[in-house]
Amino acid sequence: MQTLFNYTTISTRLEKTTRTLFVTLNRPDWNNAFRLEMLFELESLLAWCTTRVEINSIFIDSSSPFFSSGYEYETLPKTSASNLDKINTKLQKIIFAMMQLPQTVVIDLGDGAETLASEFALGADIRIASRDAKISFNHCHYGLVPAAGGMSMLSTLISPSFARNWVLSGAPIKTRALTESGFLCETYESSTRSDVIRDILTDISKVAPVQRIQAKLGLFETLRSQFETGIVMDRKIAKASMVSEDWKTKKPETKEFDFMPAKSMSYAVKLSLIKNDEGPKNLEH
Asked: What residues pair up with 68 in beta bridges, in sequence order?
């Protein structure tokens, strides 16, 4: 394999046999959380990929068994609303870009993913994970909402009934639901992981490249308007939900949060935040 680039949060290598770019989240000391630094490096790499049509597939995994915690929980209470908004906006653009890349994107979620990492996986064309993976859209457990696509994009890509269950409970999703919903293409045992990955990448490499790229474009275009409308709504809802600043209330000595009671939130404030004139025309991709 040929090593590419010198990033500080991700490692990359190119396998010529299947023409696959391997991308590994490589900050286990952060639990591979999606800090802005990592998001900027991912964005830079994906921008490079847009013109590299000779690459058939992009395979993304993590240097730790658990793919990523999403948020960096220890520093979350100190994170400002503006920084959270920057993270959500950047991740949203990355997910949207992944869906339009000429390469087929495969993500291995390993032993699981939470919050932002689960949203990041929505940009993949094919998702796999360990048979016992713990995957959850548990943003609400931390006083936040899945604003990078975990509401609108998730509800578009899978049945809304699954999305409602997963987001509103925040509980780890059962493997059967992950596969039946289509969120996961395949699961594996530790002993079969390499074989599963090899078979998927080999199958992709056998597909006619021009037709594969065009087919991916066609599949995206059928959903583009839904994605664009949903992204705007995600941002509005996220802006409204941040008024309570609930993510800042974690007590240093406990894992608990002191959330604002729902009755304390003014309906008029929420409504004024949700109703604004931002539209799809203002989106940047």
From this structure: 113
